[in-house]
Design a protein that fits this description.
By secondary structure, the chain is mainly beta. Helix content is 8%, strand content 40%. It is built from 1 helix and 7 strands. Strands 2, 3, 4, 5 and 6 form a 5-stranded antiparallel β-sheet that branches. Strands 1-7 form a two-stranded antiparallel sheet.
């Protein structure tokens, strides 16, 4: 997502954009986006810096790390980026920073619910759905 610095007025600039996950290079088998990534940003230009306050919204399907059940999770994150710019700079690309922050915000071990019982280690049954008769 490139921002043209020459189009930022003195009071700042509001932008809204809808991006496909592939636009941020975050296509994955572990995280499946169900909706485009909606970005709303307010950009302010100072003497030597540009400040971007961005909010991302989307819905993604992930797999529970205990029971492997797919579930949807809402993404609603706020980010603030500050870029040092020179007089010759005409654009700032925030795509890589958005991508990195979005990836870092996903849990390493997502859970469908906090008390997920997981799978039986012997028979593989989902213990959230049914009990098994295995001796543990």
């Amino acid at each position: 997502m490139k921002i043209n610095l020459l189009k930022i007025p003195q009071g700042g600039l509001e932008l809204s954009e809808s991006l496909a996950p592939s636009d941020l290079d975050i296509d994955s088998k572990e995280i499946i986006f169900k909706k485009p990534i909606e970005i709303k940003a307010f950009i302010e230009k100072g003497i030597n810096a540009v400040t971007v306050n961005a909010r991302l919204n989307s819905v993604a399907e992930v797999f529970c790390s205990r029971c492997l059940t797919p579930f949807e999770t809402k993404i609603d994150k706020k980010y603030r980026f500050v870029y040092e710019v020179g007089q010759d700079d005409a654009n700032v690309d925030i795509s890589q920073d958005l991508r990195e922050e979005l990836i870092l915000d996903f849990p390493v071990k997502p859970l469908c619910k906090p008390d997920c019982k997981g799978l039986c280690y012997k028979c593989g049954k989902n213990l959230n759905v049914e009990k098994c008769s295995c001796k543990r």
